[in-house]
């Protein structure tokens, strides 16, 4: 399972609402992409599409969508949101990650 902190949920909802003025049409997609300082990067986008192999996590009234390959790397993770002097961003607390970069957006297993 993947957990979502309350602050992450509120910011996901806010970003989806900013795009569409509703949260029903769009999804928050989380996926893993090769690259970054440590081999893999976490990516986040607002997406209309749901693919056949996507795993859908319904949290309150939003949908988190993760493709099946990325999902296996994210099992047990928590999606969080950080605001500080450097800016704001979504981040993943991933118990499977052996190493992460300083910003937390890159990891390896």
UniProtKB/TrEMBL annotation:
GO biological process: iron-sulfur cluster assembly
Superkingdom: Bacteria
GO molecular function: 2 iron, 2 sulfur cluster binding; 4 iron, 4 sulfur cluster binding; iron ion binding
Pfam families the record matches: Fe-S_biosyn
Domain Core residue range list: 2-104
SUPFAM superfamilies, sorted: HesB-like domain
Alphabetical list of PANTHER family matching this protein: IRON-SULFUR CLUSTER ASSEMBLY 2 HOMOLOG, MITOCHONDRIAL (PTHR43011)
Protein name: Iron-sulfur cluster insertion protein ErpA
Lineage, highest ranks first: Bacteria, Pseudomonadati, Pseudomonadota, Gammaproteobacteria, Enterobacterales
Encoding gene (name): erpA
């Amino acid at each position: 399972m993947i957990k979502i902190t309350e602050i992450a949920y509120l910011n996901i909802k806010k970003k989806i609402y900013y795009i569409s003025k509703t949260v029903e049409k769009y999804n928050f997609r989380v996926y893993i992409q090769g690259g970054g300082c440590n081999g893999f990067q976490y990516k986040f986008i607002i997406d209309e599409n749901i693919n056949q192999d996507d795993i859908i996590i319904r949290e309150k009234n939003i949908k988190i969508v993760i493709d099946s390959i990325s999902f296996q790397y994210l099992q047990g993770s928590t999606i969080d949101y950080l605001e500080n002097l450097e800016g704001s961003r979504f981040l993943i607390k991933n118990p499977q990650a052996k190493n992460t970069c300083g910003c937390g957006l890159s990891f390896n297993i």
